[in-house]
Amino acid sequence: VYLLEDGDVISIWVGSAADPGLLHAVFGAQSFEQLDATAAEASLGARGGPLSDKVGAVLRQVRGDRPVPFMQHQVMRQGEPRETRFFASLIEDRTVGLQSTYSEFLTRMGFRPQQQQQAPPQ
């Protein structure tokens, strides 16, 4: 389970290998196959219980840190069409829509990552 906030929407991606205990505690689903993303969006952070309360606290904190009036959240399951936007936001990772990572792009454009740059001569 991953959370990604892009300044507009809080996206929560759930992979098929997610722990059933986590799915039950946070989303109320017994398994990945039973996870209803729409129902999960409605009850996220409001189910009661320690883990659900922590997720709710994270959502409130993220929303509190942004100047937008109210940042919506969406829950998506692995394999849904909506996950394309989620993965396209991961600029450090190679995805279906991206031919290279951000780091590879910078290297191709002539920039070197800071950790690889040598110190200036003395």
UniProtKB/TrEMBL annotation:
Q: Which GO terms describe its cellular component?
A: COPII vesicle coat; endoplasmic reticulum exit site
Offer one example of a GO biological process linked to this entry: COPII-coated vesicle cargo loading
From which domain of life does this come? Answer: Eukaryota
Supply the name of the protein: Gelsolin-like domain-containing protein
User: Per the database record, which ranges form the Gelsolin-like domain?
Assistant: 1-37
**From the Swiss-Prot or TrEMBL record, what is one GO molecular function term?**
zinc ion binding
One Pfam family cited in the UniProt record for this chain: Gelsolin
SUPFAM superfamilies linked: C-terminal, gelsolin-like domain of Sec23/24
Query: Which species is this UniProt entry from?
Result: Alexandrium monilatum
